[in-house]
Write a structure and sequence with these properties.
With 496 residues, the chain is an alpha/beta fold. It is 47% helix and 11% strand. The longest helix is centred in the middle third of the chain and has 34 residues, at 283-316.
Length: 496
């Protein structure tokens, strides 16, 4: 469909950054195709015919617009309405953060809503709109919880990472490779359980950290399967599509495992649950929310973020790795340890973390229903969106906007160093908000946004206090990159 220009007598309010003057108001290009067939065709394009990135690139080129209409998977029969308006540039994308203009009820996973059986029969905080009373109670609880435990973030992670690197070195010496994902996942589960519950998971029904990690990974998969492709060559596309994208997968395969996780938190996090009850929450509802925050928001986040961070640092080469090592060791020595003050003085470390979040946002999709009629603008035009329409954003398109970032598809470790680099942070959108914004009970920005950045910085610092360089083999997984470490050069030593 070609774009056409219209002139409403009283245009609705605009969203996003302040628009340039005199932008033409155009009709949103694109269409949804025939009922049922259109969504299925777009689903096949997305998963099989084109792939995720080409799906969006080809439509941007076809319509000569970063705002257009399309269907988003999974479509029939999981999502009753797959129709969206895609906003795929750095200017239009922030409309999805404005909860005065978009409703975020039940859109955490997109156009479908997984069964509440996965969360004890409750709609947990991530699926609530800020207008719902429980949202403020739950998010306020999470924010206060993180604030109360912030002194534990660094020392607890240092201990966990020390064990991680020991396991990596053992694996390297035995097989010549180390599966970073599996070892990091195990570490992350143990870390978050110990952070929130003040005990080791092995002291509960959960058992080993690897068992807890496997349970949560299976729990995540069954909820998010409609958004994945397995990429198995021996499995025909039509069969995979039928199995993963046609009907929701059931809860019962992970029921017993999830109950172990839930019981572990219910018994071990009694102080947190006591506080939730004082705020008027049901104890079991608060516990299911805590499990979701620890298992979905936190564990799943590091499941993607830590391998991606290592992948990009390894791919950037020895020069960046040695610059990181020099900065880290110099600052740690002058500050007398790995402290908040020391981390804040590591400008290259901070930039590398922000760049990893920019080029590969851990959560690539954002959704919201328009609460009001509005006008959303791209760099070049304005478009009217009607109340009730679903707005969709693919974050890598927005954070790789070539009108904002030079060489947007290239990992530039020092991109955010210096005054000019720091000005670009407002276009880093990984946390369901700008990097320059803060999470509150009134918005949907990740409550652990600053914690994620901190943990990523500590991961780099602890790595380069021990090693000078590394090499890796990179592949793809359902969530993020597959990273296998093939060599480590210890500080002042030969290759391990």
């Amino acid at each position: 469909m070609s774009s056409s220009q219209s002139s409403p007598s009283s245009p609705p309010p605009t969203s996003g950054d302040s628009p340039p003057p005199n932008l033409p108001l155009k009709k949103i290009p694109g269409d949804y195709g025939l009922p049922f067939l259109g969504p299925v065709k777009d689903r096949y394009d997305f998963f099989y015919n084109q792939g995720r990135d080409e799906f969006f690139r080809s439509r941007i080129k076809k319509y000569n617009s970063t705002i257009f209409r399309t269907n988003m998977p999974p479509g029939p029969f999981i999502a009753h309405n797959p129709k969206v308006i895609a906003v795929l540039d750095a200017v239009s994308f922030p409309v999805l953060f404005d909860t005065s203009k978009v409703e975020k009820r039940n859109v955490f996973d997109g156009t479908f809503f997984p069964s509440t059986a996965f969360t004890g029969g409750y709609r947990v905080c991530s699926y609530l709109d800020p207008s719902e009373p429980n949202h403020a109670i739950l998010k306020g609880l999470f924010l206060s919880l993180l604030a109360a435990r912030h002194n534990k973030f660094i020392p607890l992670l240092q201990n966990s990472i020390s064990d991680l690197f020991t396991n990596i070195e053992d694996s390297l010496s035995k097989t010549g490779k180390a599966d970073f994902n599996t070892l990091s996942d195990n570490m992350s589960f143990s870390y978050f359980f110990r952070l929130f519950c003040d005990r080791d998971p092995s002291d509960t029904k959960i058992g080993s950290e690897s068992n807890g990690s496997k349970i949560l990974s299976s729990w995540l998969f069954l909820q998010l399967a409609p958004l994945f492709t397995l990429g198995l060559k021996y499995l025909p596309n039509f069969l995979e599509d039928f199995l993963l994208h046609t009907f929701p997968l059931p809860y019962f395969p992970v029921k017993s495992g999830y109950e172990k996780i839930y019981d572990g938190f219910y018994v071990s996090a009694s102080k947190i649950l006591d506080e939730a009850e004082k705020l008027g929450m049901k104890r079991d509802e608060a516990c299911h929310n805590l499990v979701f925050m620890a298992g979905f928001n936190s564990y799943a986040g590091t499941k993607v973020m830590f391998p991606d961070l290592i992948k990009w640092v390894a791919s950037a080469g020895e020069s960046l790795q040695r610059r990181l090592a020099d900065e880290i060791r110099t600052v740690v020595k002058s500050e007398g340890g790995v402290t908040y003050s020391a981390l804040n003085k590591m400008s290259l470390v901070k930039s590398v973390v922000y760049e990893a979040l920019r080029i590969d946002p851990p959560v690539p999709y954002q959704y919201g229903h328009a609460k009001v009629d509005m006008v959303v603008h791209s760099h070049d035009a304005a478009f009217e969106i009607k109340k009730g329409e679903m707005i969709f954003g693919y974050q890598p398109c927005a954070t790789r906007d070539g009108r904002v970032f030079e060489n947007p598809d290239e990992f530039v470790g020092d991109r955010f160093v210096g005054e000019e680099g720091e000005k670009l942070l407002k276009y880093v959108y990984w946390s369901n908000g700008r990097e320059t914004d803060d999470p509150t009970t009134e918005n949907k920005q990740c409550p652990a946004k600053d914690m994620v950045v901190l943990l990523s910085k500590v991961m780099l610092v602890e790595f380069f206090l021990r090693y000078d360089t590394l090499t890796v083999e990179v592949g793809t997984l359902l969530l993020g990159a597959s990273v296998k470490i093939t060599s480590l050069t210890k500080a002042g030593a030969a290759t391990a």
